[in-house]
């Protein structure tokens, strides 16, 4: 049990990127996906005005990705690179929202006295994913600022994270980050690092944050760390109808920690890591 509790702290509770749904499927979508479509449309219109996306733009049901021909780590990526990252982010969010839209089959893993609930489901091809639902005493803007705009400061309030560094800015809504979990003596899991593509979609009363793993040849796994992979994963933040100082917080965690670890340990540690992250987030919010 002691080893398990230590292992929990090593799993990074790092949140990721957003957004994408196909117009041809709009009539058959509801809930989170329908709202995401409206945000995506606004984003594409903005990109068209900046000349970053050729008009007209069609959003296919499933994006087909190829590795960009240009060097992906240059500071000022070209239009082709920008579109590649935006498309990939939208596809990641489409898949993540599709999982959250499933109404049946979720099994409750944990219930906290404060109302936080974590449920799980086994998804073919993805394994076991976890959904945390909570109410936070913070506005949508505050949470967006902490979890995306100032993501590099996350280690200051979350001790399970050693570092989050933005490697690339692809416009104001898309970034590539490198995250390293904190090292704890005697931990069974050991340090993990992540290379993640993050994208955000924000409007007045809702925020979509999503993410997925990405590869950069120029940034291989770091010495002493196992390169874990996450995604597609997402967070949906919505203002409560009658109280804009509080927000509903839904987090889909989908992660492959890699390495030779028993699934039983990983599947117990991941939901505990979600709860731990949420506790640290609440503590940070209480200091503002």
Overview of the structural elements:
This protein has about 290 residues and is α+β, with helices and mostly antiparallel strands. It contains five helices and twelve strands. The strands form two sheets. Strands 1, 2, 3, 4, 5, 6, 7, 8, 10 and 11 form a ten-stranded mixed beta sheet that branches. It has a two-stranded antiparallel ribbon with strand order 9-12. Strand 1 and strand 2 form a beta hairpin. The chain is globular. Pathway: Steroid metabolism; cholesterol metabolism. It is found in: Mitochondrion. One of its GO terms (biological process) is steroid biosynthetic process. May interact with TSPO.
Helix and strand arrangement:
Layout: H1 2-10, H2 31-49, H3 79-100, E1 107-111, E2 117-123, E3 127-136, H4 140-149, E4 161-169, E5 174-181, E6 192-203, E7 206-213, E8 226-227, E9 229-230, E10 233-240, E11 243-253, E12 255-256, H5 263-286
Parallel strand pairs: 6-8
Antiparallel strand pairs: 1-2, 2-3, 3-11, 4-5, 5-6, 6-7, 7-10, 9-12, 10-11
Subunit structure: May interact with TSPO.
GO molecular function: cholesterol binding; cholesterol transfer activity
Domain START: 103-288
